[in-house]
Automatic annotation (TrEMBL):
Membrane-crossing residue ranges in chain numbering: 21-40, 46-67, 79-103, 174-192, 222-243, 291-311, 323-341, 403-425, 470-492, 536-556
InterPro entries reported for this sequence: Cat_transpt
Protein name: Trk system potassium uptake protein TrkH
Membrane topology: Multi-pass membrane protein
Keyword flag Amino-acid biosynthesis: no
Chief place where the protein resides: membrane
Family affiliation: Belongs to the TrkH potassium transport family.
Gene Ontology BP terms: metal ion transport
Source organism: Halorientalis persicus
Molecular function in Gene Ontology: monoatomic cation transmembrane transporter activity
A matching Pfam family: TrkH
Any coiled-coil regions, as ranges: none
Amino acid sequence: MSRLRPGIPDDLATIARDIGSLLLIEAALMTITVAIAVGFGEFRAAFAIFLAAGLTAGVGGLANRGFAEAPAPKMKHGMVIAAGGWFMTAVFGALPFFLTAWLTPPAVMDTFVPAAANWEPVRVGGTTTLSSLAYFRNPLHAMFESMSGWTGSGLTMAIHEPSLPRAIQWWRSFIQWVGGVGVIVLTVSILARPGSGSYALYQSEAREEKIHPSVVSTVRTVWKLVVGYTLLSTVLLFAAISLSESEYAASLSLFETGWQALNHAMTGLTTGGFSVTDNSIGTYGSPLVEFVLLPIMILGAIAFPIHYVVLHDRDFRELVADLQTRWLFALLGLGVVVLSVQNVTSVRIAADAFTGPAFLSVPWLDAPSLDAVRDSTFQWISALTCTGFQSAPIGRWLAGGKVLVVGAMTLGGAAGSTVGGIKIVRGYTIARGIMWQFSRVFLPKNAVVTARIGDRQLDREAMEREFSEAAIVTILWILLLIASSVVLVNLAGPDFGYADALFEVASAQGNVGLSSGITGPSMHPVAEGMFVLNMWVGRLEIIPVLVFVRSAIYGLNP
């Protein structure tokens, strides 16, 4: 029992104290956002976020100081702290959205709307406004936005992002940026070997080990990399937007160009996908902006330990030597080709429907076909890296193209990066495990069987453990995906088919953010609440959430 709070178990005291620490950090992030609001003269938003920071700090401080003498966390606490901490930061992270919406009158909301906007009005009580800020008066919408931000999902209730106050635009980007770093630290430190540690740790004796102090060193190293990459990405995006020949880019001031470049650099690098433009990256209509974003998204999908080795040792051979990085680039290239063929073919079939049978005679390198290749390239990379930036109307694609993108969002990039999905290392382990199991059928019982995954040589016991672990997580992930898509297709309305529902759930659970058009303030509340859980479960890769639920019912002891 806790020495400071008699009757409270030590395990619960440890978990409460550390989640309290996370809330104190979140309160500090809100305080930074208050300064942003004051800088832009958004004093109502500043007061609302200051109030949110005070409430968050109050709860976090009570938990942190009230259980200050609780035992140090062990590995068995790590997953519960991760799952509970992520959920609670999303809950309190919703307060800036919710309080800003309620403390800002509709007439003031209208001042945030661009002058040329021609949108459907938002009805709030007996008044109307064009600002999407009003949607966050609904607590479920605010919670959805916060969970989407903290999990790096990118699906949004703010259908017109330019109509939000700058402080809220910043808060959306900021929580994705910080949340992305949190994912990296979680996977490379708390959960041991990226891509498999969570399940193995919960099974093994390591549950009783203390969390290694090298976590602090890892946090510092990751932050250095993320800040450096973000600054470089901001400069590149600023140049790309400035040099873009689109009418929209030409209308931007230097400050607005820099603001958009910074926000998109933050959410692109951490594969979050929130945007501050009205139609994501499609707003620019610029091949140059899309081209510059491609390496930024790919950087976020490479395991950050590889970044460190390459930059620290200046050994670029590690990009080829690393299993996940090698397969990431192979899948990026293969997927671009396959999706381009699919979408160009659909464009040609559509053209034939209007011009008669000309499938072979119409030039394949005409403007519609080149646009299809461009859109396929950007959207495949955005999907596989789980970024969620959107440049094309995916909702109008044929079902075949949507299903291909679902596959990319389900798999995701490298473990140890900021991506969601199952991860490349698990997909590879399952494929190797199936071949390994098949090869054993033709070997004598006394044969010594080994398998290689990357640079690791595994004996029979180790391979069986890794294969079963990857299979368990993947099966649970896919079962949740299928079950959620069946629920959604019955709630989404007649305008959407099963391919649309499957796409939308894969985007939420894979923490991607691409949308076929289902997600929005008008979606069914049950579907919206389900997506909140999908995003949470997907970010934590299921096992920590199951451990969290089990621990809440039975406690942490086996």
